[in-house]
Amino acid sequence: MSGAKRRKLTKEKEEKESLITQKIPRIDTFFINRETVQETAQTSSSATTEDSTGEQISRLQVESIVENEKEAEEEEIIDEVTNSVTSAAETRADGHDRDFSLTDPEGFNDWKNDVRIAEHERSLGHRENTQKHVLRGNLLGKIDSKLHVQYIQECNYWRQVLTRVIIAIKFLATRGLAFRETEEKFGSVSNGNYLGIREVMARNDPFLQNHIDRFGNPEKGNVSYFSKDICEEFIAMIYVDLLKKLISDVKASKYYAISVDSTPDISHSDQLTFIIRYVCKNGEPVERFLQFIPIEGHHASEIEQAIMQVLFNKDIDIKDCRGQSYDNASNMSGCYGGVQAKIIERNPLAIYVPCAAHSLNLVGQAAADCCSRATRFFMFVQHVYTFLSAATSRWGQIKSKVENQPGMLLPKSLSGTRWSARAEACRALVRSWESLRDALDDIAENGSEKPSTKAEAEGLSQQFGLLETAIMAVTWSDILERFEKTNKSLQRVNIDLTTLVQLYDALQAFVVGLRDRFDDYEEKAKELSQCNEYAHENQRRRRRTARFDEVSGNEAILDGKQNMRIKTFLVILDRLSSELEKRSLAYKNVNARFGFLSRLPSLTDAEIITQCEDLRTTYSTDLDNDFGEECIHFRNFIREIRLTEDEINIGKCLMIIREKNIVATFPNMDIVFRMYLTLFSSNATGERSFSTLKRVKYYLRNTMGQNRLSSLAFLSSNSELVDMAETDAIIDKFARLKARKRTF
Description:
By secondary structure, the protein is mainly alpha-helical. 62% of the residues lie in helices and 6% in strands. The chain has helices at 3-23, 27-46, 59-93, 114-122, 124-140, 145-174, 192-202, 206-215, 228-253, 300-313, 330-333, 339-346, 356-368, 372-389, 392-402, 419-431, 433-445, 451-464, 467-490, 497-513, 518-529, 560-594, 605-618, 627-640, 650-659, 667-677, 684-696, 706-717, 719-722, 727-738; strands at 49-50, 56-57, 256-264, 270-279, 285-295, 321-325, 351-352. The longest helix has 35 residues, at 59-93. It is extended, with a radius of gyration of 42 Å.
């Protein structure tokens, strides 16, 4: 069949279908005609009607005439539809322009064949009829309009129910609270937080109260959406939704850094925390917890494999990693076989920065172990706390003496890993010195106490009376207070390496300056201990036998003050200074690459070009050849906006570029700022995730699965992101997963 003939037949077909559509009586016309007939019949019942010949027509004759005309019109429509279908069948019989339809006269009974159904949906007749159906439905309404309204109301009802379910899940997850207990029934005191919070919400929510009354404790086969399975599904969906957004932000930033650390959980399984650091769109660096990874060993190869598996699963390229930070353990920080060395083999640009807070703890630990008197002092501090807290009666005595005195503190315990605890312990010891000593004296003189308890209390009280103990207390109190303040600053997310190096240098200068303040500490100690003599002066001097080649007169004899100053005080300060200098070298070497960026206003053009060329050589794949000229341009821009050198830091410069929307003007500066700000200063975020782990998985929840643990820990650690999870989108996704209708 030629194309012209085919187009002609198609046109004739459309005209016939249009004619048929026009002749089909519309629904509103049908009801209007019926009303007209009824009015005519009512009129004819009271009066007769005359035809054109003047003869009277009864009501029955009028109804008969209307019915005959209606039957004639229906027969005409059926004939035209049959002719149209026959013409379409003849056209398809020619083998050209065949549109399959389920209304084909040939018939169709293969309902399991989805291909034939898809052919019908793509057919011309189906599309045209669907369009006509929609148009007619929009004009006249559908026969199932009331059913559709009921369907919409039902959807809105359950959407409101699920909205309240998600609100409760977000609240509990962000706070790390348990969801369930032993029962899952409303009205029970053992139904857990998940159902209990709904009971609290229902007190001021009539809708929720009505739903709980109707479906609160459903039997088998009824739906309430309050079950634990639905709860777990929503937790997983919220976690996946937020994780996708986080990974999208990481990829948008491109550059990132990683940090991992491990700790055992309540079920004695090692959990490796994975932290990622990147720069947000506004130029602010952020650190996010991703997940916990169960590990069986602590070998560097095993941890490296776990890191690479996480990056592969999240579709994050290791080549974009610009930094890594771990603690100072040999399996992590080893320069040959550690994790940082293995990551550098994969990506040489992933700079290793040891945790500054952990390094500062190691500095304090080295100083505390440098001499026997320092070691004995911290043993004494722990002994005081252990003795007083061992019995409630002893703790009650010291509490009664301390709690009513302003500025006094109860004794604190030491911590092997958290040196801020040592600062708190020394501060409490100095402030409550007299109260602690009086409490120990009362215990030693109490006749109802055991002899061993009284002897131990008397020994501790004698230690409080020693001048050497008081000197160590006031000295370590000042040193550890500065360490604590510095440590808190190092744990901030928005701190950069330049500030980190400055803090280390300032702390080292502070320690060196203490060398000339021994007399001040001695005066404070005498006032505190009420003792003016050193115990060393009252001890018998030990005589050492001289060797045959020694002269006995050359031995220096030190008094109590000089012995305390030279053999204890200066030894501690020198060890602190040397350890601070050694630990700060790792940060100074990294800061040497980027540190000039915070001193741009004071540098000449030649100095900027030299520094930029060295940096461009290292990051040749990231920075362009005109990086030096662009840096000079940016320096002039800073001068124009009148920023002083004290006000300039790399984080603020990047935020200015983003706020003023001049990334296109300074693209290389934006890149180098992002790479610098992705570098970790400490692993504090990883340590915080361990606190989250202890809240989420404790002894009553020790059988929690790994996926649920990571989901709840993610929602609790990144609680500020939970509100970003769109409730409507989660409900729509849930509805798609639960839909039972088959889509052909």
